[in-house]
Structures are given as C-alpha cells and as structure tokens.
Amino acid sequence: MKTPRVLMVISFFYPALGGAEQQALKLAERLIEKGIPVSVLTRRVPGIPSFEIINTVPVYRYIRTLSWGKFFGITYFLSCLWQLFCMRSTYNIIHCHILQGLHSFAAMCFKGLFGKKVLIKVAMAGEISDFAVTKKMLFGKAMLRQLRKIDALIAICSQVSSEAEQEGFPPERIQRIPNGVDVDWYKPAREIQKIPNKIIFVGSLHDRKHVSLLISAVKKLKDTGVLVSLDIIGDGPEAKQLRSMACELDIMHQINFLGACYDIRRYLQRAQFFVLPSKFEGLPNVVLEAMACGLPVLATRVGGVPDIIEHRVNGLMSPSGDFAALCANIQELLNNQKLLHELGVRARQTAVDKFSLSIVADQYEALYRDFFAG
Fold first, then answer.
1. What's the fold here for domain 6-180+356-371?
2. Is the pTM above the cut of 0.85?
3. Residue 178: its pLDDT value, please?
C-alpha cells in the first residue's frame, strides 16, 4: 500500500486568522504527528518568506498573482498549475481547503493528467456557500460539473452534504468530516476567574455575522436594567460602523473592541458564555473552541450550528435575525446560573467526544489510506 503524501492547497495561510487557515494548520500538525507527510502550498505574501516551517509544517508560498482585475484569477490558476507540476514528485494526494477558488480546478486537472488523488473541503453553507460562490465565477458552473469527478468531497456539516448532493456530487464521494478543535489547548481554566455578566463574540466583523444585532441586544438589556460586558474579538469591514453604533447607543463603556487576536483562549476562559448571531455559517471553529473551554454557546440556527449545538442540552439556539429570542436567551443565561453551569459542562463534553482534533485527524488519515487500499 502506498504511503499517503499530502499537499494541502489553500489561497491564504497563517498568519491569516480565518477559520479555514487555522483548521488547515492544526490538521496538518496533527497528521504530521501521526507520521503522514504533509506540506502546504499557498499564495506569496510580501514580507513573509516564500518557504518556512511553521510548527513542523512545511509551507511553500509559491503561488504568484497579478492584482489587475481578471488577471488575478488567470495568474492564480496558471501559477497554481505550475507549482503543482514542479512539486508533483512530493505528493500523491491534493487536499484543497475551500472549494471556491481556481486551485480546486487546478487540482482537478492534475487528477486527470497525473493520477493524483484529490479531495476538496467545502467550508461554507447557505446563500454564500462554496457552491453558490463558484457558480457566480466565469465558467463557474462548468468547473463545478468537472469537480464532481474528484475522489472525495469533504462536507463539514449536514447542510453542506445536502447541498453537495443537490449540486450533483455522487453521494458515495461525499465524506462527512467536521472541523476539529484542540481540546488540550482549549479547556476550562480554574486559575482564571470568570467575570460576572461577561459575554463574548469572536469572528470577522462582516454583515453575515450580524454583530449589530448583538450590540442592539446589549442596549435593550441595559434599558431593562441588565448590564452586560461584551468582548468583541475580530476585525473586518464593519468595524468602524459597529463602533459608531455603540457610541450612538451610549453603550461603548460596556463593549470592548479588541481587534484581531491570535490567542483567544484567555478571553474565552474568563467569559460566562459565547454569542454567535450569524446569518450564515459553515461549521464555525470558534463555537467549538468556546465549547471546549466549557462555555455555553448561544447561536443562531444556521449552517452547521445545529450539528454541534442541541438546544437546552449544550447551548441555546434561536432563529437568525430574531432579536427578541436573542435578548431572551441572553437574559436567561445571565439569570440562571444552574443552567449556565450545566450547559457549559455538556458543551465541553460534546467538544471532547465528537469534535476533538485527534478524532478528526483519524478520519482524514483513514480516508487518505482508503485511496490506496488494495
């Protein structure tokens, strides 16, 4: 049997802080620990070495692009093809993180030309799913038809799996493997004192995360005599607008805009619970990280969230955009310490039992080895 040798391909990589980038790095580290050679091919970033080893993971920032309109996509695709060709003796599996993007189509070309095994992970569901975004690209629908021939499509949640079947991907090639969390790093900390009425949001400050709804909830609770302190970790196009909103509502003193942060663990460990009011999601890493830290998660019923959270068992869910339900759920957790504790304990257990990085890495290892079985 051949030994799997994996080349992960992703448009952005560490030090980028996105969920896909973090998952790719952590998964690569864990697979290398298990004895599977893994390297990463990604885009060149000015000021960062074109090759380096990050936490045992060899990273090749060899994909070069031009930023002139459509030339970006053309140069990205051609550069990706060239690098896959130059590195072809170092791998027998191409593992693409995120389906949308021309690296997926380049990988598909190599499956046909050189017999490389190809698996592609779908990172987002719903109206902004990888499928929806790909279809809006030039020749996107034709590319999507060709991608049905890959060896495995990784669906991180049930909604992605359903969408993949609707797009014509053969059910036998759809593999359900969730995102994973390092439960040895993200864990409750007895030495860190919880801050009363402290809640936390972590994510990009983008409209799809609907942080404005959470800020409005802080104002609504204040008007009813309930004061909460909200940590907002992340950056994005709505950062300035959200700060202005907090000032206009006269609650800036209750909200800590902390910006992008590489180590969110200490902030999670001191909070009472985590809130995610998103309009769309895949399988959000930060929900798993919060749960692993023993935090109940209050989230909207979107994307892969229902695959993680069971309402009133290990967290609370509400319909996306339901302001009244969001406020009521926040107030209930603030007022009911027994429920808060019970949800937190079960949240941690869910993360350990179903979403630990070790379990996820085992699933990928089994899939890689199945490619060459017999």
1. Rossmann fold (3.40.50)
2. yes
3. 95
